[in-house]
Specification:
single chain; 287 residues; alpha/beta; two-stranded antiparallel ribbon; 9 strands; 30% helix; globular; acetylation; S-adenosyl-L-methionine
């Protein structure tokens, strides 16, 4: 889950309340204080990380991803995860369908966090609860250890990304381009000062995807801020209709757009999110 891809050209403005100025400089300044472990505790440890209740937000996200990959339509050689943040859960169902997976994030601290898990180093965040749950809902008889082993084997690189640049991965990227599929979770709306910026970022990442390729997008609905340790980070509030409109404008056919209402028991004071969306979109082929 990522909320950490922004324009480094914005510089590092002096510390100020990040929600007092929605411009790129304020976004860039705020993200320098992003704390991956605080973010993980807020969103992937209980109560939000409790996967024992089927109506929880975690099981909902994992089901959306698993059911989409189970169709067999979202597959190929290469997949790029746009703005991975410090999380890998979003790829647990994907790894059976792609041989070459690229993780990306703007922040070095998040890329370091991903590396800890990939190398199985002491102190890495424990995703085994998520791996077990995905194996359960996929019903393939696969062990969670096998699932994690496959994902680790298929992640080939961790790259810097800037979704606000026309070439988000820069020139001469080692990632196979264009990719067969993109995944992005909680990224674009969290690093865009306004809807126009969100649209441009979506346009930029779409250039990384081949015509006919698939985008799986998960994000926040009607959220304006969230916490990651000392950082209080601004989010552009979006509704389902605005997500749909942005995808169409970027040249996608929307195959599915589902929403989840955040229950009161999961509104824990770490953000003001009202719900979550899941979109499955396919890039149109030019005629």
């Amino acid at each position: 889950m990522s909320k950490a891809d922004l324009n480094p050209a914005a510089g590092t403005a002096p510390d100020s309340a990040p929600d007092s100025d929605p411009g790129p400089a304020a976004v860039a300044s705020a993200y320098q204080r992003f704390e991956p472990r605080a973010y993980l505790r807020n969103n992937y440890a209980p109560p939000r990380g409790d996967l024992s209740h089927p109506d929880g937000v975690g099981p909902w996200k994992l089901r959306c991803l698993a059911q989409t990959f189970a169709t067999g339509e979202v597959s190929g050689h290469s997949l790029i995860d746009i703005g991975s943040g410090p999380t890998i859960y979003q790829l647990l169902s994907a790894c059976a369908h792609f041989e070459d997976i690229t993780l990306t994030d703007f922040l070095e601290v998040n890329r370091q966090e991903l590396g800890l898990w990939l190398r199985e180093e002491p102190g890495a965040f424990d995703w085994s609860t998520y791996s077990r749950h995905v194996c359960l809902i996929e019903g393939k008889g696969e062990s969670w250890q096998e699932k994690e082993l496959q994902l680790r084997a298929r992640v080939k690189r961790i790259l810097h990304i800037d979704v606000h640049q026309p070439q988000p991965l820069g020139a001469g990227s080692p990632a196979p381009l264009p990719a067969d599929a993109l995944v992005s979770t909680f990224c674009l709306e969290a690093v865009s000062p306004d809807l126009a910026s969100f649209q441009r970022a979506l346009d930029h990442i779409t250039t990384l995807l081949r015509p006919g390729g698939h985008l799986l997008l998960i994000g926040a609905l009607e959220e304006s801020w969230y916490l990651a340790g000392e950082a209080r980070l601004a989010v552009v509030p979006m509704g389902k209709e605005e997500v749909m409109e942005a995808l169409v404008r970027s040249g996608y056919e929307v195959r599915d757009l589902s929403t989840y209402v955040m229950p009161a028991c999961l509104q824990t004071g770490v953000d003001d999110v009202k719900g979550i969306f899941f979109a499955w979109a396919q890039k149109k082929v030019a005629v």
